[in-house]
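ESCALATION

Customer reports they have been waiting on this structure for their group meeting. Please prioritize. Original submission:
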Amino acid sequence: MCAAVCDLRFVGQGSLQSHQCALTFIHIAAREDLMSRRPNTVNWEQVNKWVSREGAQASWKVFGFPSIMSIDRTAFSDAEPMPKWEAPPKLILSTAINGAFYTKNENPNQAITPEEIIRSAEECIAAGAQIIHIHARDERGYNVLDTGLFRETLTHLRTNYQHVALDACLVAVNADEERMMAEMMKPGLMEGVPVNTTALILGDNHFVKSPATIIEKTKRALDAGLTPQIAVYSDADIDNARRYLIDSGLIQGPLNWLVLPGLPGCSPMYSPETMVDGFLRLVRLIRHIDADSTIIACTGGRTSSYLATLAILLGVHVRVGMEDTVWKWPHRDDKIQSNVEVFQQISGIAAALGRDLMTADEYRDLMTLRV
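Update from on-call: job pushed to the front of the queue and completed.
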């Protein structure tokens, strides 16, 4: 094979025929090399003996005639030959408009101002979105828990689109924001609020909820009639939820979970294989402690549309949008142009896989929590 490769070096700028000849030498050399490594050990005497007796024929007997491949029952019992898979017929497809992470520096199309957030949400609603999740941003484009900014967007959307379910992320990082978090839980503008049971280095940021904060925020949400959505980024977050919220008796299942892997510092997903392995582990851990849980996969970072597709295949629900990622696909750098674009992309995949979208009322019913 080395000689054949060397021959190719001397082809230079020669004719196409010369190139083809050189490639033929490479193929022959490669085949010879393979054969030299894998000797033919077939016992042809034995093969020929049986071919002479029975010929080169398959055995085929139709026990269920006249059916060849019955799809309803076997010929010998009422057992289904190919049982239907169990999967929720309806899919929660939440659209997270802007989030806390990405600014216009990462994606120029990111919605920042109340006007941009409302416009993006309305585009998604017009395309059929039933569940909208938003954050508030300040004039610099950073995440902020500001009652005025939240009410500007939520009040407009609630007033004009009563058929749509609304969620908002209320993460307080100082005393003023904690006061505004309490105010935001009162008006009845939202169906649910995420509770992060987390302690991690998220990107280049230290993001920790103390046990007391986790418990207190959950209690405040319950007191306000809101459903706490348990938001987890890693295996450890799931165990935090178990220790402080479930096994403590504060809440009991079935619960609502937001699973956000794939971001730096979260459960890593470097490839399709690691995505499948990592996501299955997260789902199994949640179902181990909350068997009838409602799990929503947030398509974070590079996982984007691939994680959404995997979640739909697994019967899990999905959150898409520019909160969790800037990319359309894991293997390319094409950036999301709008939230409605990604909503239509994933709703199209859901339709192709036979999952109808859940309505806002169905989502609200599923969000009802026993305490």
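Sent to customer with the following note: The radius of gyration is 28 Å.
Escalation resolved.
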